[in-house]
Amino acid sequence: MSFSRKPWAEPYKIKVVEPVKITSKEHRIEKIKEAGYNTFLLHSDDVYIDLLTDSGTNAMSDYQWAGMMLGDEAYAGSKNFYYLSNNVEKYYGYKFTVPTHQGRGAEHLLSQVLIKPGDYIPGNMYFTTTRQHQELAGGKFVDVIIDEANEPQTHLPFKGNIDLKKFQDLINKVGADKIPYISVAATVNMAGGQPISMANMREVSELAHKNGIKVFIDATRVVENAYFIQQREEGYKNKAITEILREFCSYSDGATVSGKKDLMVNIGGFVAVNDPNLCDELRNLVVVYEGLHTYGGLAGRDMEAMGRGIEEMVQQDTIEFRIKQVEYLGNLLLENGIPIVEPIGGHAVFLDAKKFYDHIPQEQYPAQALASDLYVESGVRSMERGIVSAGRNSAGEEYKPKLELVRLTIPRRVYTQAHLDVVAYSVVELYKKRHEARGLKMVYEPKFLRFFQARFDRL
Fold it and tell me: Does the structure show a pLDDT above 90 at 407?
């Protein structure tokens, strides 16, 4: 036997399996119609390979499951809270931790505490729930990401970087007192999982703090960002992920985290800060919306699993395999001429729906159509990240983002290379008959975060 490349394999062995159902195309046609052509409304029993999200869908380790048995379910002062907060300080560097039921709970607390009506919150491309909480608090999101982030096939190592001129221009225009903080996503989900460099993070921190503006990281996938810094940025090749993570976070005043991603748990999140006064304000609100400040809407066992997940997420073989799995799928698609966001991101492969379905105008929701068509073709569930996710502005007009994408999100430690081969084959087969596709019309639109519950019909 000869090999064209050195083979690689998962850094774990399978101990427990969960059966999945393989359905017929006729069955899937019926189910996608019932779901209003929205993959969020499909029943998971009808999905073969679920790439909707990596949020809470990861496989926990035996170490994490063992920790679940050590849950201290005391209402106040759970030992699991102190274990979690100690690990947050050890690995991220933040002094104070306020647990929440998941990431958007942390976004809500931070927005309510820091944002006043009329404020502006710059960031490197919006994220759906983040912007929603900022707007509900009376703020306005302003995108200050570099222009290249909106160009799917442009190759830059750090397409998530913030444009310092855009940031400075906003300060000059509205005044620093109208900018409570800058929201830095690492990595940038809506841009295709693209990272921000350490150098850019350092410069953003200097500019913000010089003007009295706080810096907060959406650190949900910051370990993936640390890995890209290690692999792509000069001076970091021989540094450990733990060291890179600590330095990156040191340029900020705090972070919001959905533990359902990097930390590889099924539920949980937190907001972490260094300012004791800000921590007091967050704790005052968490008892209103989530739970006592030492559990924040979580069971003790969930906090234990998060604390142990922090220890595992920074292991080199864990994060390296995570990124390589995504690269494996992306490269299979590129080899077959499929238009995707390049370079391949950290948590998902993003299909470029504008090029995939170039005959469908954006007003007919091409990414939504592509996600539903892929499910019918193969039983693979993906997610729209385009005009539907972007929603509407305060005047009721639809945002029309430059990126119209379908996200194939890889849960951590769940699928094998064989599963990803099936996904790639299915996408390629769909691409061959792409000109048969039709657009969609929206027939039901909820008030907030419409992509979760909207319904469509075929044009």
Answer: yes
What is the three-state SS of 155-191?
CCCCCCCECHHHHHHHHHHHCHHHCCEEEEECCECCC
Give the mean model confidence (pLDDT) for residues 173-179. 98
Q: Which residues contact 408 (CB under 8 A, 6 or more apart)?
A: 51, 329, 348, 349, 350, 351, 380, 382, 423, 427
Tell me the pLDDT band of 1, cut-offs 50, 70 and 90: low
Instruction: Give the sheet arrangement for strand 383-385, strand by strand.
Output: 348-352, 405-409, 383-385
Residue 415 falls in the annotated catalytic set:
no
Is residue 242 part of the annotated active site? The answer reads no
- What is the number of H-type helices and E-type strands within the chain? 16, 14
- Alpha-carbon distance of 197 to 195, in angstroms, equals 7
pLDDT of amino acid 6 = 81
385 as an active site residue: the answer is yes
Q: What six digits make up the tokens of 208?
A: 């913000």
Could you give all domains of the chain from N- to C-terminal order, each with its CATH number?
Answer: 25-54+316-458 (3.90.1150.10), 62-313 (3.40.640.10)
The structure's pTM equals 0.96
User: With b meaning 16 or more CB within 10 Å and e meaning fewer, what string describes 59-79?
Assistant: bbbeebeebbeebbeeeeebe
Q: Which of 28, 214, 261, 413 is catalytic?
A: 261
- Residue 307, both tokens: 């604390």
pLDDT at 3: 77
Exposure of 277 in the CB half-sphere (CA atoms within 13 A) = 1
Residue 104 bears catalytic tag: no
Active site residue 399: no
Could you identify the residue written with the tokens 């190592």? Answer: 157
Chain centre distance of CA 207: 26
